[in-house]
Amino acid sequence: MTFRLTPFLGVLLLSGCTPTQQIGRPNLLTPDPYATISRSTRDKTVQIEHLAADGRSLEMVTGLAFTVAVDSARWFDPDTGRPRAIPTASLISVTTNDRLDGAIEGGLIGGGTGTLVGGVGGALMNGVYGGEGGGIVLLGCLGGGAGTLIGALTGSRVGSGTRYEFRPPPQR
Predict the structure, then answer these.
(1) Closest residue by Cα to residue 125 from 113, 115, 114, 137
(2) Where are the beta strands (DSSP E) in the chain?
């Protein structure tokens, strides 16, 4: 029974990874991909990776109230409060991190995993805590509660993020 659960537990643990979205130039299928990014990042702190002014080296900065359009990307520097802007063509990636979403995902993944592990442990104990299914229910509930708590605390600390990668403009 444990070997059959291993792939399922692996999927649960890996489901908390940061998704990456490739962003290209607007086209017929995605008329304004920048509006979606601007809506999802305007209230968050983001990590912005872009080409520096020399055009060769990379620069990684933190920004607030990030917005992007076809011609430029704008944000506020959290240390100075000053606005910054760069050409959209120099953007490499923008990464968001949301601690509340991380806590929710962590609690769900931890609760599911804890319930499964506790239930399997209860099944292996084979009725030690009274009746046929008493151990399964008791340890499943205890494992689920502990897993939810640990997962939510870990998820809120780590956060849940989305990475937007910008494709370079076509060479002419």
Answers:
(1) 137
(2) 20-23, 45-51, 58-68, 72-76, 83-87, 91-98, 160-166
Cβ atoms < 10 Å from Cβ of 98: 18
Bridge partners (DSSP) listed for residue 84: 75
Confidence (pTM) = 0.61
CA distance from start to end of the chain: 59
Quick: pLDDT tens for 91-119.
Answer: 889 988 888 888 999 999 999 999 999 88
φ, ψ (nearest 5 deg) of residue 35: -65, -40
Find residue 119's DSSP bridge partners: none
Structure tokens at 61: 């900065």
Query: How many helices (H) does the chain have, and how many strands (E)?
Result: 4, 7
What number of other Cβ atoms are within 10 A of residue 162's Cβ?
19
- Say if residues 62 and 50 touch (Cβ distance below 8 Å): no
Using CA atoms, how far apart are residues 98 and 24, in angstroms rounded to an integer? 24
Q: In what order do the strands lie in the sheet with 20-23?
A: 20-23, 160-166, 91-98, 45-51, 58-68, 72-76, 83-87
